């Protein structure tokens, strides 16, 4: 398969969705609650996903598409959808990652498109339309931002690291908050931009040293996981197992601080 063509098609689809985000940010026509008051969707999310699907399927008519807005809300439904989906040629799409930011006019929302070929993540595209930054990667061929090569940071000390995380919409919200509190006193700083895909792109670009979050979905992670690894970083679940499409509790770092991060994510182990 021509992965460079797949990357170009994904970038084109991301730009179409990004134009919708730029047009309607801060003033979506309709907003609906999904699985909780923290989990929202707008008509723009749905329109962006439809536009992305049309572009991807025109070029790859036999491909399968898994997108946030085509799966019922809630972790159980998302897990089931991932377990059942065919992975031979699979696009995994989040049309607006950071919907709450989009609704409130906060310029930290992205389009995330990942491609699996024969169950392996091969291509990742994350587009930040508000900064017009196109992050992209092909496994084994490097990662780029607007055509410039990206590499993860070289920071090797967790205490000097800048990390990012978020606040899950479901049962793991409290655990994530406790982990943020725990790290707040033992790292240089913790950021929370409200978009997992953006966090992952920033790890790949060396702007962040690491990112973790609990209870995320495949469409939040695939593109960014491909990107971080292509930029020289490491992505696992919270127990250190290699990232897969089924991963929900994720840790992504420059690789140098990864084991330190995993150790301290375990709330049952006192900090050194």
TrEMBL record:
Pathway membership, UniProt: Polyol metabolism; myo-inositol biosynthesis; myo-inositol from D-glucose 6-phosphate: step 2/2
GO molecular function: inositol monophosphate 1-phosphatase activity; metal ion binding
EC top class named in words: hydrolase
EC number in record: 3.1.3.25
Chemical reaction(s) catalysed: a myo-inositol phosphate + H2O = myo-inositol + phosphate
GO aspect biological process, one term: inositol biosynthetic process
Chain sites annotated for binding Mg(2+) 1: 68, 94, 96-97
Keywords: Hydrolase, Magnesium, Metal-binding
Record flagged with keyword Magnesium: yes
Entry-linked InterPro entries: IMPase, Inositol_monoP_metal-BS, Inositol_monoPase_Li-sen, Inositol_monophosphatase-like
Family affiliation: Belongs to the inositol monophosphatase superfamily.
Name used for this protein in its record: Inositol-1-monophosphatase
